[in-house]
Amino acid sequence: MPALNKGHAEKSAWPFLFGTTGAKRCVSRIPLDSSAELLWRAGRAGTHIGTLCNLIYNQLGEAGVRRVLGVLSLTKKFGLAAVEDACAAALEMGVHEYRFVRRYLERGPQLTLRQVDPLIRELVQYHDLINLRTQEPEQ
Question: Does residue 135 lie in a domain region?
Answer without folding.
Answer: no
